[in-house]
Design goal:
The complex is a heterotrimer of chains A (about 600), B (about 200) and C (about 270). Chain A has about 600 residues and is mainly α. Chain A is built from 18 helices and 2 strands. Classes of the chains: A mainly alpha (about 600), B mainly alpha (about 200), C alpha+beta (about 270). Chains in contact: A-B, A-C.
């Protein structure tokens, strides 16, 4: 009898609920196969990794703002990296590499896709669990070694990988090219490979569960936008990661088996002429960005979906242009897979190819703008309640606008000549994958915290958190755009040596860092809020916000099997606010059509 | 015999007529296919840029490779027969055909190993060859190696399904899913064969 | 909905005002002159592209923030939800409208202003009298080489590389004897095309002249041509724009743009 079909999960649910089949602590909380536990495991792990990534960023900011000031305290904590009181340049390049790697894979993807995806997908589509719970459990327990391997890379000889999260060869392929290109780079490749395995296992579950395990009546066009965005993001992730796996395998072979996939003839590194030949560094760039570009959409699409769901709940309005938004998400995803070359305008690839990529990239602005307009228009005519979740959702729209419009500069091949590899790029992608995604993570946290943990986060602390996140964020990454416009290259250990930056070096680095400090203080409010609330009693109602989607029918938190003996049946779309046939201001998805006619 | 093999897999929902297990296997196959696509595209990129490339006729023993290909394709035929037999709950045929597929897979692996050892003996290795085109060995051994490990995993899966069939615990869908994977592995070989040996 | 989750109304006003301030602030600050002063012929075209984008995106950012802030203001103060819901037609209009607008703004900009500049830089051959210089990037400096009076670069061979012979110049080659070599410094005449033959000895680097709107990756195994025409005399900085190791930040170089007489004099002096 094969496990995992819906009726068997239901049986497991009722069986597990009965006390004569109590699961051990290990089976219930550690190696759980319940998507809710796994989702929380991912979410909390992501939070810890976010803090680690932020700490690395703090060290970067200190170095860039005070490059000539000796730092004896840091020397005590990091004797190797700060030998002599100053950060070593090698450590700086490892810092930027690991900050990016940790934040992209182990914070944003882990939190939004794995964390919220695991938690919400079965609940929002009306399933009792994911299609293949064992695989789901394995997807979390593959991430743990990935993180351990990545973290351990700081402590090996040569330190952590130092070729950027982009790992371009030959720098990443030749161990003698940089200290971090030794064992650290190999560990990086292993960690990323494990991440890809974990993501694939998760993605298989997300897509299959959404396709096959929806509740009765949950047609595809009745799914909330959070689910649509997770579905589309998972699909492009599944399609885009394998070429990176291939690329990583080839890189490992170049590093350890003497092959020359990426290494041309005549390389002279660390005093030695290398025997390799016949390879091309550009091959890596094509393979990497074939994943790398869709990857950022894997991260941002769920953020957009979550923002819609939060906004409509607190504006009490249906999502404006729901179907159009779905098609725009599909369009963005499809286009995202054919524009990777916009990361390579200066790479030496054929310029005509560059023009093709530029024109294609700018097409993405079209569905993106439509989505942004739809978000704002969803507020129209509503009665907006500005809870913390709603505040962060509004903030997401702002960041999406600034980041998105900044992208017009970089997708434009001519403008990109001046802005490529400058702080402008850093400002742009932080607005998108450090801003939109981060705020959506926070918005979703405040919104779904009652469902996940049975308690309501404190609203006052939440508002302080909001103001001290959004305003400083503009300060940090807005300034970074200007710094890049002034010509500042990225990944530089020290920018004070260049005369052309003298006028901006007087204020930009310091202003950026001051705002960064403010933002870190803001996050402290969230951490305090989390700790306080988790220690309080469970008191959250099933549906504290009066929302219409399925997860709010289950208790807060839901039991194993989610729904009790009767799975929900869906009779209408996800955003029936303002149904003229109803006295209430909204009609829940499970209200039968005989009671209130469906309008969606 | 009908009841002990073909346990109809009832699911509350199907997507495009497929159970969740089948959907998942298809998605997995697509991702695995894209992995090979990544390797083969890199091979294409390198070969397009290469000024010189060893002549296939000098390197390979095409009759042997054709025989290998015939063995693998035949094993796909026996696999398809097994799946058809599973659908009509004919356990004896399923068992025989799975065994034949298994043998075909093992034979292919043996022939691939023999091919490799012949090449090694002729000085064609992962990193060097007599024609001084390191990229050739780089791509050949990496890609056929990856394909070989997929054939090996397929053989293991076939072994498990065969054992289950003998014991009467296999499901029709299980046989079908193993078949999907096996056909995929075969299809990849067709591409590898064409792009390395024929082109 | 629980009573405790109803926030006071001034949050809406504060948010609206903040959104307006942030939008206007970031655009006003973004409109300042940060670009290094332009000093090349095609650079003027790139700056025109950047100007267009600053105006277009600045306008879009301000409009977006103003509209969002206004919606927040209105809806946070409203006493009831509007009884009517936007119909399918309104949804289509407000999708097609922005889609058309963005197509014109984004694609229009690149097709009209960007592609011509891009073509000029990448697809046009430099004039025949261009000054040709080979620059081979390495960890962590720039090896500069002029062909000398014979107009030919001597052969290089990586097997000849040593600490004294950084680029592996084959001194047996007659063309090599008059090659002029520099480190992280090169001199060119104003108003005459400069053609750089860009190479790399070890890893990826990128040849970046901020004032001249030039950026081109140096790829080992390739010799990439990049050309431009400096239009102002002076000393201009060169930086590396592709992470190349721990000394990435230290690859500072200089391009000295002088009058053609001064250039000829320099060349004669160095070319003996």
């Amino acid at each position: 009898m094969s496990s995992g079909s819906e009726s068997e999960i239901a049986d497991d649910a009722s069986v597990a609920a009965e006390s004569h089949h109590e699961l051990s602590f290990l089976r219930k909380y550690v190696f759980s196969m319940d998507h809710k536990v796994i989702g929380i495991q991912f979410y909390l792990t992501a939070a810890v990794m976010g803090l680690l990534g932020a700490a690395l960023a703090g060290l970067i900011r200190i170095q860039l703002t005070w490059p000539t000031t000796p730092l004896p305290l840091l020397e005590k904590i990091f004797p190797v990296a700060y030998a002599g009181g100053f950060m070593s340049p090698e450590f700086y390049t490892s810092l930027v590499t690991m900050h990016g790697t940790i934040m992209i894979f182990f914070f944003v993807s882990l939190g939004l896709v794995s964390g919220f995806g695991n938690y919400l997908i079965p609940l929002m589509v009306g399933a009792r669990d994911m299609a293949f719970p064992v695989l789901n459990m394995l997807s979390y327990w593959t991430i743990v070694p990935a993180i351990l391997v990545a973290a351990s890379s700081f402590f090996v000889e040569g330190g952590a990988a130092a070729s950027g999260w982009t790992a371009y060869p030959p720098l990443s392929a030749v161990p003698s090219a940089s200290p971090g290109s030794g064992t650290g780079q190999t560990l990086w490749l292993i960690a990323v490979a494990l991440f890809i395995v974990s993501f694939t296992m998760g993605g298989l579950n997300y897509v299959t569960t959404i396709f096959n395990l929806r509740a009765k009546g949950m047609k595809l066009m009745r799914m909330p936008l959070t689910i649509w965005s997770l579905l589309i993001a998972s699909i492009i992730g599944l399609l885009a990661f394998p070429p990176l796996t291939a690329a990583a395998v080839l890189l490992l072979l170049d590093r350890h088996m003497g092959t020359s996939f990426y290494l041309p003839e005549g390389l002279y590194i660390a005093g030695e002429l290398l025997p390799n030949g016949g390879g091309s560094p550009l091959l890596w760039q094509h393979l990497f960005w074939f994943l790398g570009h869709p990857e950022v959409y894997v991260l941002i699409l769920p953020a957009l979906g979550i923002t819609f769901d939060v906004l409509v709940t607190f504006a009490r309005r249906p999502a404006f242009g729901y179907r159009i938004t779905v098609w725009c998400l599909v369009a963005i995803a499809g286009l995202s897979m054919v524009v990777w070359g916009h990361h390579m305008f200066a790479s030496g690839m054929n310029p005509l190819v560059g023009e093709f990529f530029s024109i294609g990239t700018l097409l993405i602005t079209i569905p993106s703008t439509v989505i942004g307009v739809n978000m704002i228009a969803s507020l129209w005519g509503g009665k907006l309640r500005l809870t913390s979740a709603a505040l962060f959702a509004i903030g997401t729209i702002c960041f999406f606008g600034v980041g998105g419009f900044g992208g017009l500069f970089l997708g434009n091949a001519a403008a990109d000549i001046q802005l490529h590899d400058t702080a402008f790029v850093v400002g742009h992608f932080h607005f998108m994958i450090g801003g939109v995604t981060f705020l959506a993570l926070l918005s979703g946290s405040y919104y779904w915290f009652p469902k996940m943990f049975g308690r309501m986060l404190n609203e006052t602390l939440g508002k302080l958190h909001f103001w001290l996140t959004v305003v400083p964020f503009y300060g940090i990454f807005g300034t970074m755009h200007f710094y890049g416009m002034a010509g500042a290259p990225r990944r530089y250990y020290n920018l004070t040596q260049y005369g052309f930056l003298d006028s901006v070096n007087t204020w930009m680095p310091l202003v950026t860092t001051l705002f960064a400090v403010a933002m870190m203080v803001g996050q402290a409010f969230f951490l305090v809020n989390l700790a306080k609330t988790l220690m309080a009693k469970k008191n959250a109602p099933d549906n504290p916000w009066g929302a219409t989607t399925l997860e709010w029918v289950a208790s807060s938190p839901p039991p194993h099997g989610n729904w009790g003996p009767d799975a929900p049946v869906v009779h209408r779309g996800p955003y029936e606010y303002g149904n003229p046939d109803s006295e209430e201001d909204c009609v829940h998805q499970t209200v039968p059509a005989e009671q209130v006619p469906a309008h969606s | 015999m009908a009841s002990d093999l073909a346990l109809p897999d009832t699911e509350p929902l199907t997507f495009l007529g497929m159970s969740w297990r089948k959907v998942m296997m298809w998605i997995f196959i697509v991702t695995d296919g894209l992995l090979f696509a990544g390797f083969l595209a890199s091979y294409g990129f390198a070969r397009a840029a290469a000024t010189t490339w060893p002549d296939q006729n000098e390197v390979f023993h095409l009759w042997f490779i054709s025989l290998m290909t015939f063995v693998l394709i035949s094993s796909s035929a026996t696999m398809a027969t097994a799946v058809a037999a599973a659908k009509r709950s004919d356990r004896q045929t399923v068992s025989k055909m799975l065994a034949a597929t298994f043998v075909g897979g093992v034979l292919f692996l043996g022939m691939q190993a023999f091919e490799w050892s012949t090449l090694f003996a002729e000085g064609v290795t992962l990193v060097s060859n007599p024609w001084n085109v390191p990229a050739f060995g780089n791509y050949f051994f990496t890609i056929t190696g990856f394909h070989g490990t997929h054939v090996l995993s397929g053989v293991v899966i076939l072994g498990i399904v065969l054992a289950r069939t003998r014991r009467g615990t296999a499901t029709m869908e299980g046989v079908e899913l193993a078949g999907l994977y096996w056909h995929f592995v075969d299809l990849v070989w067709v591409f590898v064969f064409t792009l390395f040996y024929l082109v | 909905m629980t009573e405790s989750s109803k926030p006071p109304k001034f949050v809406g006003a504060a948010l609206a005002v903040t959104v307006w301030a942030l939008g206007i602030g970031i655009v006003v600050l973004g409109a300042q002159k940060y670009l290094p002063p332009v000093a090349s012929a095609h650079g003027v075209g790139i700056d025109a592209m950047l100007e267009y984008l600053l105006v277009a995106t600045g306008g879009l950012v301000i409009i977006g923030h103003l509209v969002l802030g206004y919606f927040v203001w209105r809806t946070s103060r409203s006493s009831a939800v509007s009884p009517t819901v936007p119909g399918a037609r309104a949804q289509k209009v407000w999708s097609v409208g922005p889609a058309v607008a963005m197509t014109l703004i984004a694609e229009g900009g690149v097709l009209v202003l960007g592609i011509p500049v891009f073509n000029q830089l990448y697809l046009q051959e430099p004039p025949a009298d261009a000054v040709v210089i080979e620059i081979m990037a390495e960890q962590f400096t720039w090896n500069v080489r002029y062909p000398g009076p014979d107009g030919e670069f001597g052969r290089t061979d990586p097997t000849l590389i040593s600490t004294e012979n950084g680029i592996g110049l084959d001194m047996e080659d007659p063309a090599a004897s008059d090659d002029i070599r520099e480190l992280a410094l090169f001199t060119v005449p104003v108003d005459r095309a400069v053609r750089i033959k860009l190479r790399s000895k070890d890893v990826l680097h990128s040849f970046y002249l901020p004032n001249h709107r030039i950026k081109q990756d140096a790829v080992p195994g390739m010799t990439i041509d990049v050309w431009f025409t400096p239009t102002r005399e002076g000393e201009f900085e060169l930086a590396c724009a592709e992470l190349c190791g721990f000394g990435h930040y230290q690859m500072r170089g200089f391009m000295s743009v002088v009058s053609s007489e001064a250039y000829e004099a320099w060349l004669t002096e160095r070319g003996h």
